[in-house]
Design brief:
Order of helices and strands: HEEH
Oligomer: single chain
Strand order of the largest sheet: 1-2
Helix content: over 70%
Number of helices: 2
Distance between the termini: 126 Å
Number of strands: 2
Strand content: under 5%
Largest sheet: 2 strands, antiparallel
Amino acid sequence: MSQSEPSFFERERDRLSADVTAGFEDLLSSSNVLNRKLEEVLGMTREYETIASLWQSFHELMRGQRDEVLEDRTTVPGTGAHVVSTNSKRGRE
C-alpha cells in the first residue's frame, strides 16, 4: 500500500463525512422551508386580526342598536311613544 492511496478507514471517514454533510444540508433546507411557511401563517394571522376586529366592531354596533330597540319596546307602537304601565295597582282597585 502506497502513501498516495487512502486507506479503508480514510475512505469510510470521507464517505460518512459526506453523508453527514448532505444530511445537514437537507436539514437546513427543510428548516428554511418551515421558516418561510411559518412567516406566511403569521402574515395571514395578522390579516385575519384586522378582519376580526372589523367584524367585532360591526357586532358591537349591531348589539348596541338591538339593546336600544329592546329598551324602546316599553312603548306601544303607533301611540306617539305612549308608555305601557307595568304598575299592577290598577288591577287591584
